[in-house]
Specification:
By secondary structure, the protein is mainly beta. The chain has 2 helices and 11 strands; from the N terminus they run ββββββββαβαββ. The longest helix is centred in the middle third of the chain and has 5 residues.
């Protein structure tokens, strides 16, 4: 995201803090901005009726003389009843796992079958909530949302994002705070980057990547890799050099 400027060297900038970007080349400023992608995850784990479970890791302390240990970890599972219960702002010092489970399907030891979202590197918007771009992009107010499935709710920013006033977004739909426990639900995950441009980004920006994982959590009765037949050398393809041309 670049704009024109009258500057062709930083020594001409009297107040660099008012530049709101980086001088990338003569008369070109790279404006500080964000990138966001929202993933629509219609999971249907072992069937359509699922629940969202936030698994909080908590520190517990031991009583005096109870143990040589001073603290240990426990998992507190909270099943979201409504949409607002499932809205998540990721926090480094509030570690959690985020499960979509089918409460009516159990493993042989009684755990509900499920999958978990494992977030990768992401970002949160710093814009004011009433700023017009943030109203249009209100799906960035949380990194995770969960809504009941609705065929008309497919695009987190609404159908016409650039012309939107923020009245047809994921944030607006979720204000209804609908029931989501043991329902056909959709999980939305927003992945983002803050971008302070640098000269290496201009004129062609290198690739920047991030990701997230969806991993089974008590979906299988054991590690599914154990059922994969072993590979032997004789099973592998053998490549031979082609005969030299005559």
């Amino acid at each position: 995201m670049v704009k024109g400027t009258s500057y062709d060297n930083m020594n001409q900038v009297n107040q660099p803090e008012n530049l709101y970007g980086t001088l990338l080349s003569e008369n070109v400023v790279g404006v500080i901005h964000d990138h966001y992608i929202t993933f629509y995850l219609d999971m249907d784990v072992d069937g359509p009726d699922n629940s969202f479970v936030k698994v909080n890791l908590k520190r517990e302390t031991t009583s005096p003389e109870e143990s040589p240990r001073i603290s240990y970890l426990k998992a507190v599972r909270n099943v979201a009843k409504t949409e607002k219960d499932a809205q998540v702002k990721l926090k480094l010092y509030d570690p959690s796992e985020y499960h979509i489970v089918n409460p009516s399907k159990k493993t042989h030891v009684g755990n509900p079958t499920g999958y978990k979202l494992v977030p990768g590197g992401t970002a949160a918007s710093l814009l004011d909530l009433d700023d017009p771009p943030q109203k249009r992009g209100a799906f960035t107010n949380n990194q995770i949302w969960v809504t009941p499935y609705n065929k008309s709710e497919e695009w987190a920013g609404g159908l016409f994002t650039y012309q939107s006033h923020g009245d047809d977004t994921l944030a607006v739909w979720s204000e209804r705070d609908r029931a989501i426990e043991n329902k056909d639900i959709v999980m939305w995950y927003t992945l983002g980057f803050h971008h302070v441009p640098c000269q290496e980004d201009y004129p062609i920006m290198p690739t920047v990547s991030s990701s997230f994982d969806l991993k089974p959590v008590n979906f299988y009765d054991s590690n599914p890799i154990l059922n994969i037949p072993p590979h032997f050398e004789k099973d592998l393809p053998v490549c031979n050099a082609a005969a030299s041309a005559a």
